[in-house]
Amino acid sequence: MSHTILLVQPGSRPETRTYSDYESVNDCMEGVCKIYEEHLKRKNPNTPTITYDISQLFDFVDQLADLSCLVYQKSTNTYAPYNKDWIKEKIYILLRQAAGQSD
Question: Which residue has the higher pLDDT, 98 or 101?
Answer without folding.
Answer: 98
